[in-house]
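Schema walkthrough. Field components (list of strings):
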Amino acid sequence: MTPTLQLFLVFSSALFSIGLLAALSRRHAIFILIGIEMMLAAANLNFVAFWRFAPGPHEPTGVMVAIFSIAIAAAEAGVGLALVIAVYRHIRTTNVDQLDQLKG
Amino acid sequence: MNSVAFIAIAVVTLGAALAAALLRKLIHAALVLAVAFIGLAAFYFLLGAEFVGLVQIFVYVGAVAILIVFTILLTRREGETIRGPNWSGVIIATAVFSGLAWAVYKTPSLAAVAPTFEALTVKRIGETLMTDYIWPLLCIGLLLTAALVGALVLVMEGKRE
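Field assembly_structure (string):
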């Protein structure tokens, strides 16, 4: 038996949920970024899986979307980590619970 | 595609991702995250998208994971207060997963088997990228430049005054 599209989708749902868990339950800003990266990568896998299982002649649309999405993820990681470093310089912490200056 | 490879890669990737989400030490989590990304790249190879798999390894393992490690080194501070698992996060993540899995299994059209197809060559990808996708490609170039400049501005030492 070969893996069906359902198995790939369930796998990427599991990866997405693990990323969500990391983003929701950790207090460290870098852990939150790791969770977001994981969610993005899981969504990427869906594009490639749908492209592979599509009937008919193959336009490489899913692959293209995946490549562009990886590029955007790289830009997002760069800016996000730069933000973490900037926040650390100002407040000397990376714990998001202590970033409560806007609290009234 | 065979199911043994699928199960092996899925177990390794999910285990690594779970470890990255739950490990106490930040640097261990970053290294395990690289393993999870390599597992995802193996999935791309399994699906016949070799180019995406290579890009995944280059960008995620080569750049993003190393960037995370560098950020950890630059912001090293004995930080995270030890506390028990955050149960609301666990509950929300489990609920999201069961919702998604239920929806996937209830959709009968997703039970398809992969059709045979000719391999997608890098030449074909390059031609498509340069003809149909030329505007997205230019926008991505602009976006990456802006992100590079923005990241530099954010972390630059303030000596303007």
